[in-house]
Specification:
Oligomer: heterodimer
Radius of gyration of chain A: 22 Å
Distance between the termini of chain B: 56 Å
Number of helices of chain A: 16
CATH class of the largest domain in chain A: Alpha Beta
CATH topology of the largest domain in chain A: Uridine Diphospho-n-acetylenolpyruvylglucosamine Reductase, domain 3
Strand content of chain A: 15-25%
Number of helices of chain B: 22
Radius of gyration of chain B: 20 Å
Bound molecules: iron/sulfur cluster
Order of helices and strands of chain B: HHHHHHHHEHHEHHEHHHEHEHHEHHEHEH
Distance between the termini of chain A: 27 Å
Strand order of the largest sheet of chain B: 2-1-3-4
Number of domains of chain A: 4
Strand content of chain B: 5-15%
Largest sheet of chain A: 7 strands, antiparallel
Shape of chain A: globular
Shape of chain B: globular
Number of domains of chain B: 3
Structural class of chain B: alpha/beta
Number of strands of chain A: 18
Chain lengths: 481, 388
């Protein structure tokens, strides 16, 4: 280990080691540098220290050490965030929750599980599935992301069309506030005694403190599920079909759309039999009692054909269903087979404007000479246009950045919002001012200041520079990689 | 420092993190540097950003079990094995003269001297009985005496290997019996074809691995198929074409089959079980079978008529054995094995089947009852020596 890359901030390191021991405090420069990024596109600064508490008490002690030294801290789970929420700005202490991975209690009668924040989303579902339950939010990164991270970003996922996003599935939270106080927000009781701050905390991306335990709602597994794959030769027809399905009175469990480019990339990885030559596909899942499900599937298929679907395929068994979903959920990664970098947006637009916005997105990409792939939660209008490129190409970063800005613009102009489920983090905060007035931003900043007057909790995230909290962290130089 | 990695391959990782839960060392530490994404990013740091190769970097690289669970999981098709292989080879050649590296080279080189391996195994077996072998040596009780193997014909070669021949010869005996029942005579390569060279290659000692590969090829000439009952060795033999980059090596590799693959292709020739009783077994997928050779389905296909199979719920997560990993990184290996032990416990099976000697020895050392698929078949068709 070269001496120069070791952290020399001895008093801070000593205090952290006193709490966690040597093993769980990382000081080596080589290792710390690996924490400059999450799954988003921007690279941040090297954190001062990375530490791994495993209990609420240890998190509290670490936060108190940060406070004592006036050091900001950044909570991090698996680092699968897509907006840079866990990317360090300045030289913070990164607090990793992956060692807090115990399922503390499963109460099937109350249908609630208490879990530590580092439990992986899919691990929890796999654990309770044999008991007849699952955790409903199912983001694409489900296999890797932590429940703490789901709380921080208020994650969604395909099945949130029917079940709602994370905030609908978190009953209560234990939280270490930025001043080291441990509080419980919400709770299993139907009516908590005071303000329900649970809702304010979920989605706050670590800017109001660190979740140390989560009471999640367990959702009963549906008795029957059917998954349909509808292929179209025309994008408008596919988008029209989305509205058609909803208008027919069916609320599918999930209703996803991929454009033809995306379908090819995905098929290269999973080999699930996605039709490579389709212009767009819809992945529709219906669930409920066996008779009703068969009937709904029939109706979806009918709507599909009436909108010009070229083919409708119904997954034969669980294996086929899983393979289709695997394709959908690994879509972001699969595009790397075409270009090594992607920049992803997460805007939500009214369903009626889908086709229009989609066309504009393609047009924007064409103008900036970029490839664009679309895969999204069509049922709730949550777009995920991926701009793919090779960051090693000179000048490409500027084009990507400009195109991204225009995509946000057209989405907002269509009456949409900035983020459906990935959060704002570092990457999207510059667009906040397009979405909110200064008063709105100030109000949000005031809430945040109430939780974190010293501005130590994940500074530089969510609120833009220039707002009352934003100036704490300017983008690190060369953040665009 | 240039690690000799293909820059396009290095750039193909998009940092999504979907591989993390499939990485055994990340599973037990929760640390980015011990994850596939972290390792790739560290390689980028050195090769692209010119960061120094320090102790921490070496640790990041050496703690990788090379199980390739990440490669299977990666939607972007990142060739992790190739990145890791190139990095290890660069580190090994840079440290050529170092004390540690000379020691590794000498130790792995010994695997090619079959007499020494056999003598060593006997000494260990004796030592275990005299209780002078430290308990942390990750081995089950080894057999003191082993029956001589006898060639039965010349239809197929059976690759016998180094450690496996020294301590698990009963698996070879079972393989010969099963092939014999199918009417196939087996030739044995003798001591020339001792070690396949996989451990040397994983350590980045490419030249040593190439020498061993040439020896193995010379010992099994002709056209007959080569059957291998160790998933790790099979993967190595199948890779000779790449390793030696000669037409001859390529033709050799094309003759190599894992025994389960070989049997699955000839299922109709396999004798039926002798009784209707089916043993219940949990299937443990060796990484070199599942993630490298991608043949784990063959195991299920051949065992189906003979046993009641139970799947583990860990999606083929590594058991921690990893060739010499369990010796060089004992603490990590044991922590990883703990996860596997819990998965086996959840499955409720009393017996585990594994097609790789490294995995079975490592699991047996923790008290798990493990057999090779071919042993199960052997027992099922002959009525079984121990009534399983
Ligand atoms: S190796 Fe593959 S799965 Fe892992 S982070 Fe990179 S792109 Fe994602
Ligand atoms: S090869 Fe195995 S141990 Fe190494 S990074 Fe990949 S998953 Fe982890």
């Amino acid at each position: 280990m070269s001496a120069t890359s070791e952290n020399s901030d001895t008093p801070l390191v000593d205090d952290l080691r006193a709490v966690l021991g040597r093993d769980r405090v990382t000081v080596s420069g080589t290792e710390r540098r690996l924490y400059r990024t999450d799954a988003a596109h921007q690279r941040g600064d090297t954190p001062a220290v990375v530490c791994f508490p495993s209990t609420t008490e240890e998190v509290r002690s670490v936060v108190l050490v940060c406070r004592k030294h006036g050091r900001p801290f950044v909570p991090r789970g698996s680092g699968t965030g897509l907006a840079g929420g866990a990317v360090p700005v300045g030289s913070p202490v990164v607090i990793v929750t992956t060692r807090m991975n115990r399922v503390v209690d499963v109460d099937l009668e109350e249908r609630v599980a208490w879990v530590q924040p580092g439990v992986l989303n899919l691990d929890l579902t796999n654990l309770v599935r044999p008991l007849g339950f699952h955790f409903a939010p199912d983001p694409s990164s489900q296999q890797a992301c932590t429940i703490g991270g789901n709380v921080a970003t208020n994650s969604g996922g395909p099945h949130c069309l029917r079940y709602g996003v994370t905030s609908a599935h978190v009953v209560g939270l234990e939280v270490v506030l930025p001043d080291g106080e441990v509080v419980e927000l919400g709770g299993p009781e139907a009516e908590p005694a005071c303000f329900d701050l649970r809702g304010a905390f979920i989605g706050s991306e670590g800017t109001m403190g660190i979740t140390t335990q989560v009471a999640v709602r367990l959702t009963p597994n549906p008795p029957a599920v059917m998954t349909l794959l509808l292929a179209f030769d025309d994008l408008d027809a596919a988008a029209g079909c989305v509205s058609g399905i909803i208008a027919s009175g069916i609320i599918p469990a999930a209703l996803e759309m991929m454009d033809g480019e995306m379908v090819s990339a995905v098929e290269d990885f999973v080999g699930a039999g996605y039709p490579r030559d389709a212009t767009a596909v819809l992945l529709v899942e219906v669930e409920g009692l066996p008779g009703g499900v068969a009937d709904e599937a029939e109706r979806v298929s009918g709507v599909g054909y009436s909108f010009g679907a070229r083919s409708v395929r119904i997954a034969e068994d669980e294996a086929e269903r899983n393979l289709l979903w695997k394709g959908r959920k690994t879509a972001f990664g699969a595009v790397a087979r075409i270009m090594p970098d992607y920049y992803l947006h997460d805007t939500v637009v009214p369903r009626s404007r889908l086709v229009d916005v989609l066309r504009k997105v393609r047009e924007i990409a064409r103008r900036h000479r970029l490839l664009v792939f679309n895969v999204f939660h069509a049922g709730d209008g949550n777009l995920h246009p991926l701009l793919v490129f090779d960051a090693r190409e000179a000048g490409v970063a500027e084009r990507v950045h400009a195109a991204g800005g225009e995509i946000v613009e057209v989405s907002l102009a269509a009456g949409g919002v900035l983020s459906g489920e990935h959060g704002i983090g570092l990457e999207k905060r510059e667009y906040m001012a397009q979405m909110f007035t200064q008063d709105d931003l100030d109000a949000q900043a005031a809430v945040r200041m109430a939780f974190d007057p010293a501005g130590l909790a994940n500074p530089g995230k969510v609120l833009p520079a220039g707002s009352r909290c934003g100036e704490l962290g300017d983008l690190p130089a060369g953040a665009w990689i | 420092m240039n690690l000799g990695i293909d820059e396009d391959e290095l750039a193909s990782c998009v940092n999504c993190g979907l591989c993390l839960p499939h990485c055994p060392t990340f599973r037990v530490t929760g640390a980015e540097p011990l994850s596939p994404r972290g390792r790739i990013s560290a390689m980028r740091g050195v090769q692209v950003d010119g960061e120094v190769v320090d102790g921490a970097f070496v640790e990041v690289i050496e703690t990788c079990v090379q199980c390739l669970g990440c490669e299977t999981a990666c939607p972007s098709g990142v060739p992790f094995g190739a990145l890791m292989g190139a990095t290890r080879a660069s580190l090994a050649s840079k440290r050529r003269s170092g004390h540690q590296s000379r020691l590794t080279r000498a130790a792995l080189g010994l695997l090619g001297a079959h007499g020494a391996v056999l003598a060593g195994a006997r000494a260990l077996a004796l030592g275990q009985r005299l209780r002078v072998v430290p308990r942390r040596v990750p081995l089950p009780l080894l057999p003191l005496r082993q029956e001589r193997l006898r060639s039965t014909g010349s239809d197929v070669w059976l690759f016998t290997g180094c450690v496996m021949d020294a301590v698990q010869r009963d698996i070879h005996q079972a393989s010969i019996r099963v092939l014999d029942r199918m009417g196939l005579g087996v030739s044995l390569p003798g001591n020339e074809a001792s070690c396949c060279g996989a451990l040397s290659e994983h350590a980045g000692l490419t030249d040593q691995a190439r020498r061993m590969a040439s020896g193995v090829m010379k010992a099994m000439p002709g056209e007959s198929p080569i059957v291998v009952n160790s998933a790790g060795c099979g993967a190595a033999l199948k890779n000779y074409g790449q390793l030696l980059a000669t037409g001859e090596a390529e033709r050799f590799s094309a003759r190599v089959h894992d025994i389960c693959e070989f049997l699955a292709q000839r299922k109709t020739a396999l004798p039926p079980p002798s009784s209707a009783r089916r043993t219940t077994v949990a299937v443990q997928d060796p990484c070199h079978l599942r993630h490298v050779q991608k043949l784990h389905e063959s195991v299920r296909a051949v065992l189906q008529p003979y046993a009641r199979l139970i799947e583990l719920d860990d999606e083929g997560l590594c058991c921690g054995a990893g060739g010499s990993f369990s010796i060089l990184h004992a603490d990590l290996a044991v922590a990883v094995r703990e996860l596997k032990l819990r998965a086996i416990e959840r499955s409720g099976a009393a017996l585990v089947v594994s097609a790789n000697p490294g995995c079975s020895l490592f699991l047996q050392a923790a008290g798990v009852d493990v057999v090779h698929p071919v042993q199960l078949i052997d027992w099922a068709i002959s009525g079984g020596p121990d009534g399983r």
